[in-house]
Amino acid sequence: MNLIDISNAIETGHTSLGIELGSTRIKTVLITEDFKTIASGSYNWENQYQNGIWTYSLEDVWQGIQTSYSEMSAQIQSKYHKSITKIGSIGISAMMHGYLAFDKSGKLLVPFRTWRNNITEDAAEKLTKEFNFNIPQRWSIAHLYQAVLNDESHVSKVDFITTLAGYVTWKISGSKVLGIGDASGMFPIDEKIGSYSPEMLDKFNNLKLVKKYPWKIEDLLPEVKKAGEIAGKLSAQGASLLDPTNKLEAGSIIAPPEGDAGSGMVGTNSVRERTGNISVGTSAFSMVVLEKPLKKVHRNIDVVMTPDGSAVAMVHVNNCSSDINAWAGLFKEFATRLGVHLPADKLYEALFLEAAKSDPNAGGLVNYGYQSGENITDIKDGRPLFVRTPNSKFNLPNFILTQLYSAFAPLKIGMASLNNEEDIKTDVMIAQGGLFKTQIMAQQVLSNALNLPITVMDNASEGGPWGMAILALYAKDDHGLKLSDYLDKNVFTDSESMTLSPEPEGSKGYEEFIQQYISGLSIEKVAGSLKGENNA
Length: 536
What we know:
Elements: H1 3-12, E1 15-21, E2 25-32, E3 37-44, E4 48-50, E5 53-55, H2 58-80, E6 89-94, E7 100-102, H3 121-131, H4 140-149, E8 160-162, H5 164-173, E9 177-179, H6 180-183, E10 189-190, E11 195-196, H7 198-205, H8 217-220, E12 223-225, E13 232-233, H9 236-242, E14 253-254, E15 258-259, H10 260-267, E16 275-280, E17 284-289, E18 302-305, E19 311-317, H11 322-337, H12 344-354, E20 366-368, E21 385-387, H13 396-420, E22 428-432, H14 441-450, E23 454-457, H15 463-476, H16 483-491, E24 497-500, H17 504-519, H18 521-529
Parallel strand pairs: 1-6, 6-14, 6-15, 9-12, 16-22, 22-23
Antiparallel strand pairs: 1-2, 2-3, 4-5, 7-8, 10-11, 13-14, 16-17, 17-19, 18-19, 20-21, 23-24
């Protein structure tokens, strides 16, 4: 589209809005009906550790959404001299899982318990055994059942539980719904019926400690919808929540809200069988769309759904890039003391390029970037930890490579079950996330770590909110196509990508690193037992 066409699309509402609430950033993206981004806005935020819980306040949720929306609107006004009054369709995505519980009046009963919390081990183990289906600690049903086991006073008052994306969608539309991908992180889904498993709902309701409560679990959960269905319409109140200036009109079609995994699958065109994607950020996860059911239950593998309802094997790790970002901040502070002011992209580029000069095994250095506990490696409490021996080759290239190596280490360990025990194959594995803004280095390290070819698309750092905007367009008009065909035939017709294959020397060096990493996990466990602000 040219400037005049885009201006007309803005004025007539032939646009789609995607909002994604990630762990460190809320981002708003506006696209036209030819899938091109025309404006975006963002808001940085951080989770808080309060009373033993990783959480975000609901006030911050709306401040972040409004700030990012306002920034996007300002870009439109500046470039096209138009105010946004109409938007054709809107989609909300957010961090998957966690626990938001409300009473009948819509009051939040306890602070939002995010995916990052490792406080539901007892519940997750019991439910996995009861269901014969893996229930991770971060899933909503694990949080609810742990609250039951703890005999928490709020449980008897629960009227509705949802995820962060489901909460925002509820508030802007009045609809208590969830996309099937995000719903599959609340409670197990029966792929054949496209909704919560009736057998497991009954099993949960019949648990001895659950029976005493006045509710049934199916009455607490959001309605499940697949991609292409309509979740509701933007209400007048919802329009004011997004745009407090009250220029935005009600009536936009609302797509079924999804988790960041679902929007990531769409943003990387990875919803068809034998496709897979990896998303890296504060946390990291790999997703492989399954051709057939898993042979057995794996505690390191979640079975979730694509936005259109196909089974996916998911490996989710709690820690990825946080420690890299912390060290980068330290280097930036040092540079500033020297009078050198480096933008973030230049800083990361300089550091990552330095890693190209490293030894393949990172010189014997080891790092544990555990800002929080890590289920994959059975670490209860996180303590970022850098370890070296007197004989390690301690220099800047090896140090930076160690940070990249450690960022992908839990994912490497978690994916071993997929590769070694299930023999799952993919035709393509596409990666996305901010680490790939700096071309080649992080992508090559990931390829060496997993010993797989890794593809990065030209939208690798912005896939989530853009993917959600695509899902919103699909909800408005699916053109009679399955989601996979819609993406192939309409969205990804001219996308650019680059694929890197494992380097033999690099893969060998990473295997040396990972063996040291695994053998040293006992150090991390001891460090986690030390009293600090996260477990005082």
